[in-house]
Fold each of these.
Amino acid sequence: MKTLDQIFPTLKQVPEKFMMDFPIIQSEYLVNGKIKKWHGDFREVYSPVYIKNKNNYTNYLGAYPMMGEKEAMEALDAAEKAFDNGNGEWPKMTVEKRIECIRKFIVLMKEQKETIVNLLMWEIGKTLSDSIKEFDRTVEYINDTIEALKNLDRVSSRFTISQGIIAQIRRAPFGVTLCMGPYNYPLNETFTTLIPALIMGNSIIFKPPKLGVLLHYPLLKAFQKSFPKGVVNTVYGKGENIITPIMESGKINVLAFIGTSKVANTLKMHHPKLNRLKCVLGLEAKNPAIILKDADLDETVKECVLGTLSYNGQRCTALKIIFVHEDIADKFLNKFSKAVENLKIGMPWDDGVNITPLPEPSKPAYLTELIEDAVVYGAKVVNPNGGEQYKSLFFPAILYNVNNKMRIYYEEQFGQVIPVIKYKNIKEPLDYVIESNYGQQASIFGKDSDEISELIDTLVNQVCRVNINSQCQRGPDDFPFTGRKDSAEATLSVSDALRVFSIRTLVAAKETDTNKKIIREILKDEKSNFLNTDFIL
Ligand code: G3H
């Protein structure tokens, strides 16, 4: 078996179809319908995938603009004008026409699939299969969003009469929406907020995550060609230089942010008119696996490997702590450790690879710190090679005998350190969930329906999804995805997202002859885009 320092390839060893013309210097940004040239400072982009060149390594991928307050304000101004207090072309456009624009965008986006998939591998080290999945899942999400909106619009195309009042109830956009996605799903999770916000008639300021920026570059033209000017604007740079002034302006109506609760709280606090600000937040989690004494160990191990280590554990939904009943703890650890030992570590495009380079330069050192801290308080790494590292590569470490003195007990590791705790009484994992700052999901592994049902009834009031004999996950995307406490604000799913980015709004009139006549005339001559009974086919 190769040691970690032998894993990075030479240039020749990179398969030709994944090679790109680096460096990619993004010297453009989209504002007010124009793709503008950037002449200021740049931020260099480095890959977690190092290329070996004799005794040296290179990993330079390119650069993107480091904008400042002036450009941020320009983007804000453009988005504000496009919305124009609800009078803009986009917010007033019929649902059917907005759908047409989104369809055009999908066609243009699909043309960029290969480039985006390759950049996902180079920029964030995601495996080829997961990168393809991320792209395809995003396109599917957009298509499903269109269908969900059609359904919503069909239901809203009728009138309601109650207590002598006739009304049509629809949904209206909020205004300028700031969309900021995470580095682990830079395309998918960004678009799960950006697309519904857009399709409901909001205008957008879009800031790509700190890692996974260049992969959005090929979409600038697609945005420009598909939407009226100012409806989508992009900003790049340091949050304090561009996002702080945007928030301080008080002109953001919706903040769609996926990242840490600390950053989310800071962003919110910059907004001077908190009641005007609607927040859609996907934040941290520390989802536990609770393994009961009658669990099927093979199935449990399979799900725990997937749950803890898919994309190197860098998923908000990852299983981040495992509680196993003392009667089966040794057996579980044995099997789990063997399964982890067999994982393949390599480059994102390698066949059957599981563990890939980590995109955050400081992550391997952070994970090592967590292990060292836990060892001081009595934990032990139980799998061979656990915690070994070289540059951006880190071999998963299973930490056993974890307790509440250790940082790993509380901190969201977002990487390949897996804390395992042996419990005697089911109260122990339940107390953990209750005391945790997070409340996203939990997984229960076992067979006894009496015991499982009791756990379900307790856990559903602490977390927002309880998985039985299955790892935690977001999908399918038509299921609600949310969390309690510091884990989320608002609920996302294909159909929920449409609701989150819009507000129920109605036109109502007393059922008098004059009012009926007015409404009839508006409908007959299709005078209003809002008040109409068109049924989208
Ligand atoms: O990072 C959090 C993602 O929403 C997780 O999604 O469960 O489909 O990997 P996933």
Amino acid sequence: MDRPPDYSSGGAPATGRALTVLGLETSCDETAAAVVRRQADGAVQVLSSIVLSQTDEHAAFGGVVPEIAARSHVEAIEGVARAAMVDAGLEFAALDGVAATAGPGLVGGVMVGLSFGKAVALARGLPLVAVNHLEGHALSARLGAQVDYPFLLLLVSGGHCQLLEVRGVGDMTRLGTTIDDAAGEAFDKIAKALGLGYPGGPALEALAETGDGDRFELPRALLGRQGCDFSFSGLKTAAARLAAACPTHQDRADLAAAVQAAIARQLAERSARAMAAYAERHEPGRFVVAGGVAANRLVRARLQDTARAHGFSFTAPPLAYCTDNAAMIALAGAERLARGMVSGLDAAARPRWPLDEAMALSSPVHKAGRKGAKA
Ligand code: KG4
Ligand code: ZN
């Protein structure tokens, strides 16, 4: 009798050979390229990872300017991709595929990386994988540790704040999302109100180190509402008002500490609810956090405590792979390539591209709009 297919690694059964993939990431303000090898047994090696940040080019504007980002990606992508190949010690002929972020993100930048990926694929006769940037974050913990499917994921970045049940490659259900700002966006906007530079998250974390988080009382969002959705706009407004009345460095440090604690608490509270729901369906409980905000030490510590209290294991990506990078894109590409999930050279750049498309369309938190459902 035939044995049933082994889906333990998630999605369709994977190919039985090692795959080496060039990944490209240009969806926001980092031009990144990386080479990742996925062994036949699913083990992952990062052979190179180059991230060229445009932070300095956007600093004067207090945020990312899409036109500047797109132009910088055009100027940088070829050099960054070549550097990734040199660091990996490989010729293009050694590649099995090319993976490029195809969305969601700033579409001008996305088009640069995706077009470059198509050019490499065409010139070298390689398969192309158009990768959802969020799927890259979702799988990023696997760049540092073995994480079997299924797992519960908290994806917290500058553009997204979601809880997802991840059953395999491209097989995810959204359990909760933000009804207004993303957590990273809240960090960035409050940091700006405190006179800190962009990106605000790391700057606010540094300022909070010498602060007393108990001094300021901040509002708690969606009290009395069940479920796993997030909201940060009330916190943002309250913090901005308080920041205007914080003349000294110590005042600002105290406020930064209170803000960081409030964000960490909300993330932990909603994750706890998601863990309770997830535990009814799956054993063992695995909890993964990913995205730029996962680099925050207090956030990590709170989430780790929450996972332990609920009997879940806890995994976060290595710090270098929390914020945007191309290794996670190469890995997502390799996982798809291993399952024959490749894209045509007509793959489109998508400004919006929810991970759980069905859920985003049936119960959109944001109106779907002309360009499709937001994540
Ligand atoms: O994942 P990411 O690099 O880009 C997106 O896909 O959005 O995340 C960037 C976000 C920014 O909002 C940044 O302020 C935040 O992650 N971030 C942090 C920290 N490092 C980055 N937030 C809080 N603490 C940090 N240490
Ligand atoms: Zn990202």
